[in-house]
């Protein structure tokens, strides 16, 4: 009986021998076009070596004779070589880096021009304050309104940051229209206008999205040269690299870009993607900075916001508490920002009158917000108290400045630094300006990032953080005018260093990342403050993560995208909650030996997209999973008019056909308008409406006979619509039957056993065991990007876990609020004892079944009494 | 039949209701001791609020009256609070960081003292060159010999870097004795001595190992306070964090440490571990540097090898080709280093005479190598041409120096810098010294790292890289004395910057990491050379990765640890090779309804550790997997003397017993010396040796009756040895049977059906489908740390893939050499067509079986002819 599987091996060898012939046919083509092209190129090169005369003289008319022939040959070879290289990863990454660097640089240039134009207009009208105000306010309003309108019309998907969507896409969820050329154009132009307006908006989130779209488009473009870009796994890997490129070329921060993109988009990360990201991001940042040198903006490649803090004594050990304070305060501030941002969105949604009004005039909200913000920053007005005339970039440059503003009172040696003047007000001091700036910018940024234009929140938050750090730094400098260090040398406090720390901490708190630390090092070109920055960022993260989700997760929840919450720190119970505590036990399934009416019943009773296929209701051995649409197709196929017609034709051979032409039915068939899966049922509906109750007619939509809109997407795909002309003809024949006859026929059909041979079945759906811990389940779900998994016990299906259950379980036990789906304390049973027992019992039953089935005489398990 | 699973739901609810009672019992204890302790503390606090009198007056004799009582209460509360907090992750991480910082600092201090002692000895004896030479050579020889001997005696596992082993452990493989206190002590002391000798050895690899051991020991220590540290998944996560701490506190480089440890130990990593690593490594680096400040080594917290390159113009764009050259050359150099290192080890192994000699005198090889190296570096001897008197740290400090050594010929303004003098030789120039240094150190480092002491290769390689970079930098400086930049300002070339680039590139090439870039930024405290460093590191990696495995992977292969090679870049075929091309089809399995003799046969015919358990040989439905040892235990239990004795006792009730006492057998039973699983067979062996052929007697070891050594570990565990006294008594009864009778009885027993109820079965072994791509299989294996996976098709077992097959498949197609296990081109078949067909066929068969079984009348799949 049991033992060695010799037959299996020989069988498989026979299979192989057969398949070998087949594959040889395909081998050449799908194998590796790169290799093929190389071989081909080598062959051609040899050929050309023998016969240097080109084969198509018409094309090479001007080169036929003379010295140019070898050049031409060489060019041809180069071209072939290049095409053969197109499939390599590094070519793709270099191209991506190059394109993104160009895009980033061009956008920066356009944005700078826009801002310059505003400044020029404002400056030119300094004779009349009213005109000045009009110019100051109108310019951003127009730009933002245009941006919102343009995006709305071309691609509404381009609105917002894009990082939440990328996170979702990298989890394996397909979001339509998010990576198209249209969205790309909308995002690039929309973002340029939005940032050109001078509103407190950022560009790094959108850049992640732009880079991803760029990668998707590039891979589609390059696939024209070969078939390497069709693999989905590879595309996902390239998207991960693209996210790194996006951040990298936005800040010229390759390392920080890679790390930041990992932190905000992934739960698990492959080290090989990390290398890809490094490669592409470095190349991109390099080109981005080379362009600046080429444009004479810079003398050589340096950091974007270069600082010049002293190297020998960057900070004193006793300043560390102040840095820690910045970190903790930033943690609270970051959480507050996320909360405020969410509340604004929710308020807009909930207030029905506002909502209705805004829905009608979509561009009013952006215009209104821009108007308010730009009015408040108007430099001769309130803007004078908050350095309103500075652009975001100038603000950062001044905040990272090397000097101490509050060193000896106000304006002493400031006069010569024009740009710093904005922070000084004759009737107030630096502290007031900074505090006003922080408070105003805080709500302005939270409000501005809700405008429906492409925009990020990283940069505004970064600036606020820098201002807060500067405030603390200036206070420290005022408190200890000669520094804290008491030894021979006097080392004054550097408020700019505090600004760097604050920027990293607040942006880290809002995004829940620690890689903002690396970004500030790369952005400022100095790493001397590494320990304060790291400490502040970690503290800020610890505080913010315990209070609020990250900004991106918050948006994911607002947008109701599918997500899987993170497992928090140190929640030991995660290791003890088990799948059996959270799984759904009451699942619908399809058996191998079921009838069509069972399928109907199953479709009726559940809405899940994937149904388990088990051997039989008794054994419950899981064989695979079948999609809901496939089940629907099986059903509709069985009950299709075509089959009925075939049947009738066979009948018609013996008896006469009395014709009946029903144009209304023909029309409906041609329309096939609401549910292609169930069209046969629908066809019978209008005629049989009087005699039969509606619910029993439509198994898929029994509860509510659906309008056309609900069925256009999702479960019902137009797979039955392909043969409409045939259908018409057949309908004429088919409708010889009366409704009652049709019903009878259908009842008959439903009573047959299901033929699964035409259905597509996933033969290995992901399986878990009952006592898999929540921790491990979470890991597997996020690693493999699963949507659902079946829970089995020794082959038997016992339950199912989907993202929903997992989310509930994690959030339930994480936050304390929300639905607790498991009975309290159910998860803390002793794992080894109970599960082993359960397993053994189940196995024992199975074994007993076999035992009794095969040889009921030798039943005793101990075997003691058989001698 | 099929349809809704209402019964399941009610069944499961009933189960729950039952289980709930059980779990309540456990709930309080295993749940979450932290919460429990908190509750308890709160309860006690309340109690004490009511009754402030302490309950154990004897202990609190001095506090009973007066003001100290509240203090005591407070202290008790604090104590309880602390204990309740011990389970939190962050407490663990802080403790780990603290301990490792102390260890690192103490070791650094000890090493510095050792080196100082050597210098002092060498300096004191400057009157006699011979004595000086003796001192210079003897001191390191003694230290290295001691280190080698000490490690050999205490824990041979402490030898070498430790990163290869950690990589293996983090894959989920259990390496015994690698994380024990003994190994910890051996590694710390051995490493201190080895580095104190001044040999070209590094400390970062061992530090990764030390930190991991520290984490393992700490978690075992903390588990005394509660049960949180027993979870394996958590321990693995903590080990990953510990690796980051190891590198972080070794170089005071938290970010680089985290990234480096990720790159060298993981294929996939969880972002939550990355945060853990950041937290612990930052804390550790912080404490490490604070200790230096506290010890007055430093004025404040700064980088370890602080550089002072100019900030405003770090390098010219036109210098980039030189940096790229450094990168490419370092790539070749790194590959050569790995190759050389491996060849030395292999040479030592292969040369049998050398090997035999070295095995006898284990300490001779270290002593010899040390002697040679220290002779060559003797400063008055050959050492004068290679800066032999400098320690590793001094070498780095000088190489990163800000000045240009070759600016205007030799020694001009050098006189005042004592330490730099080592690089100057009156009769040669800096270039010669650097070249000699690089060449000599290269082979010395490759040789020294093969000495069996705890040592790493990172630091030596880093130094060689820095020297190479310096060489290129000095050449550039000599070539362009006034810099390349042609504008108004003259920016001279900074050779120190080239040294930084070279160090990162060569160490990156040897370890196949890009995070060495981050490490040099943190190590030097300057990030201004970010682009050159990144470019050089990426180029070096590209070259080195295409030539050789990383040093750690090379060691893994030399040590024959289980590993999974990386998927290379751009190997598109990885996406097309499928599991069916590489899987083993000829597998042995256990069926549910098999007999004991089948088990015997299976054990005979295969050596795999996990056997699949299928429903029956016909259906081949995979139910689970059973360990080989479990199968052995089942067999031995069935044939055990105990069972035979029980049987005989039942017989003895009816007939008379004639006693037979055989002391020799009793002795053997007590010994139970070579195979606990098969002890019953062994017992019968000596007596039946004359009458029966040996192979048929021992099913597990039939071919070669094994010596005691081979069975002490691995498959056979001493599970049968627990009841020896009982066994003795029973043997006296049992051996009333003659050998022939025993054989007969055993034959009878073997013919019975197997009772699996006592066996431990894994109910959900990992399953793959035939057409899973190699890429995905690799991902899953490395994600989940799998050792093997079964390949199923709609529930049926069709094959098995283990690490070995996967490795062969990847390396076979990666390097071109090695065994190609799949037929050529077999993998490039059209996936959708063939697999869907195969699936459908298999499913169809299954379906047909059911069809015919249940209702043979309605067999037609179309169902057309039933009307």
Automatic annotation (TrEMBL), chains A, B:
GO terms for molecular function: voltage-gated chloride channel activity. CDD domains: CBS_pair_voltage-gated_CLC_euk_bac, ClC_1_like. Its main location: membrane. It is found in: Basolateral cell membrane; Cell projection, Axon; Cell projection, Dendritic spine membrane. Keywords: CBS domain, Cell membrane, Cell projection, Chloride, Chloride channel, Ion channel, Ion transport, Membrane, Phosphoprotein, Postsynaptic cell membrane, Repeat, Synapse, Transmembrane, Transmembrane helix, Transport, Voltage-gated channel. The chain crosses the membrane at residues 90-113, 133-155, 238-262, 274-294, 320-342, 363-382, 458-480, 500-523. Pfam families: Voltage_CLC. It is a multi-pass membrane protein. GO terms for cellular component: axon; basolateral plasma membrane; chloride channel complex; dendritic spine membrane. The keyword Phosphoprotein applies. It catalyses: thiocyanate(in) = thiocyanate(out). Residues 848-867 are annotated as: Disordered. It comes from the Eukaryota. InterPro entries: CBS_dom_sf, Cl-channel-2, Cl-channel_core, Cl_channel_volt-gated, ClC. The keyword Manganese does not apply. Homodimer. Interacts with auxiliary subunit HEPACAM. Belongs to the chloride channel (TC 2.A.49) family. ClC-2/CLCN2 subfamily. PANTHER family: CHLORIDE CHANNEL PROTEIN 2. This is Chloride channel protein 2. It comes from Ploceus nigricollis.
């Amino acid at each position: 009986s049991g033992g060695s599987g010799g037959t299996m091996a020989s069988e498989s060898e026979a299979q192989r021998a057969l398949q070998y012939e087949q594959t040889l046919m395909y081998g050449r083509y799908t194998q590796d076009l790169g290799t093929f092209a190389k071989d081909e190129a080598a062959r051609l090169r040899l050929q050309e070596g023998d016969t240097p005369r080109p084969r198509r003289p018409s094309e090479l008319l001007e080169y036929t004779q003379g010295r140019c022939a070898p050049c031409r040959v060489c060019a041809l070879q180069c071209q072939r070589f290049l095409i053969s290289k197109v499939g390599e990863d590094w070519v793709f990454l270099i191209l991506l880096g190059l394109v993104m660097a160009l895009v980033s640089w061009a956008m920066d240039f356009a944005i700078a021009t826009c801002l310059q134009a505003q400044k020029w207009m404002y400056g030119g009208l300094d004779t009349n304050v009213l005109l000045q105000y009009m110019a100051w306010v109108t310019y951003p309003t127009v730009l933002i309104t245009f941006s919102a309108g343009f995006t709305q019309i071309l691609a509404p998907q381009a609105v917002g940051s894009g990082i939440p969507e990328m996170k979702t896409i990298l989890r394996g969820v397909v979001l339509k229209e998010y990576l198209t050329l249209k969205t790309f154009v909308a995002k690039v132009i929309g973002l340029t206008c939005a940032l050109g307006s001078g509103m407190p908006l950022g560009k790094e989130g959108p850049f992640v999205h732009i880079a991803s779209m760029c990668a998707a488009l590039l891979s589609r473009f390059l696939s024209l040269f070969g078939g390497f870009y069709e693999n989905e796994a590879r595309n996902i890997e390239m998207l991960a690299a693209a996210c790194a490129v996006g951040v990298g070329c936005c800040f010229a921060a390759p390392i920080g870009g890679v790390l930041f993109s990992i932190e905000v988009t992934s739960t698990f990360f492959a080290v090989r993607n990390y290398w890809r990201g490094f490669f592409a991001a470095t190349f991109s940042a390099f080109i981005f900075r080379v362009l600046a040198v080429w444009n004479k903006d810079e003398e050589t490649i340096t950091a974007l916001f270069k600082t010049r803090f002293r190297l020998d004594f960057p900070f004193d050990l006793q300043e560390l508490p102040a840095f820690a304070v910045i970190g903790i305060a930033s943690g609270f501030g970051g959480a507050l920002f996320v909360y405020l941002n969410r509340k604004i969105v929710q308020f807009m949604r909930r207030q029905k009158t506002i909502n209705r009004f805004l829905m009608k005039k979509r561009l009013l909200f952006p215009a209104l917000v821009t108007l308010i913000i730009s009015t408040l920053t108007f430099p001769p007005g309130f803007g004078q108290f908050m350095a309103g005339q500075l652009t975001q970039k100038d603000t950062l440059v001044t905040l990272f400045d090397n000097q101490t503003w509050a060193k000896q009172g106000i304006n002493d040696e400031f006069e010569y630094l024009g740009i710093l003047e904005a922070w000084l007000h004759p009737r107030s001091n630096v502290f007031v300006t900074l505090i006003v700036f922080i408070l105003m910018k805080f709500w302005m940024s939270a409000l501005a990032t809700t405008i429906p234009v492409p925009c990020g929140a990283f940069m505004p938050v970064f600036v606020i953080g820098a201002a807060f750090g500067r405030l603390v730094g200036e206070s420290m400098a005022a408190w200890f005018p000669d520094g804290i260090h008491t030894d021979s040398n006097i080392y004054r406090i550097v408020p700019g260093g505090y600004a760097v720390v604050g920027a990293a901490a607040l942006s880290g708190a809002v995004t829940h990342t620690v890689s903002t630390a690396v970004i500030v090092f790369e952005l400022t070109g100095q790493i001397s403050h590494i320990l304060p920055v790291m400490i502040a960022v970690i503290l800020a993260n610890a505080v913010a993560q315990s209070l609020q989700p990250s900004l991106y997760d918050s948006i994911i929840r607002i947008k109701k995208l599918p997500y899987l919450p993170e497992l928090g720190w140190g929640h030991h119970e995660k290791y003890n909650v088990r799948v059996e505590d959270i799984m759904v036990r009451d699942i619908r399934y399809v058996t191998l030996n079921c009838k069509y009416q069972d399928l109907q019943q199953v479709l009726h009773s559940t809405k899940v997209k994937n149904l388990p296929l088990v051997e039989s209701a008794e054994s419950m051995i899981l064989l695979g999973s079948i999609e809901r649409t496939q089940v629907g197709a099986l059903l509709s196929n069985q009950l299709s008019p075509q089959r009925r017609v075939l049947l009738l034709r066979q009948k018609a051979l013996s008896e006469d056909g009395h014709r009946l032409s029903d144009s209304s039915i023909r029309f409906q068939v041609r329309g096939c308008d609401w549910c292609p899966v169930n069209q046969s049922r629908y066809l019978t509906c209008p005629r049989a409406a009087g005699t039969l109750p509606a619910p029993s007619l439509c198994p898929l939509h029994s509860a509510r006979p659906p309008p056309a809109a609900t069925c256009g997407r999702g479960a019902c795909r137009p797979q039955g619509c392909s043969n409409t002309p045939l259908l018409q003809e057949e309908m004429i024949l088919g409708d010889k039957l009366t409704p009652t006859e049709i019903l009878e026929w259908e009842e008959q059909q439903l009573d047959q056993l299901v033929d699964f041979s035409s259905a597509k079945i996933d033969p290995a759906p992901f399986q878990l065991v009952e006592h898999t811990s929540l921790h491990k389940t979470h890991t597997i779900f996020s690693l493999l990007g699963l949507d659902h998994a079946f829970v089995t016990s020794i082959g038997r299906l016992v339950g199912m876990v989907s993202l929903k259950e997992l989310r509930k379980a994690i959030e339930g036990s994480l936050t304390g609020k929300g639905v607790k789906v498991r009975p309290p304390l159910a998860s803390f049973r002793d794992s080894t004892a109970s599960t082993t027992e359960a397993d053994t019992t189940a196995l024992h039953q199975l074994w007993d079944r076999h035992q009794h089935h095969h040889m009921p005489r030798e039943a005793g398990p101990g075997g003691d009494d058989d001698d």
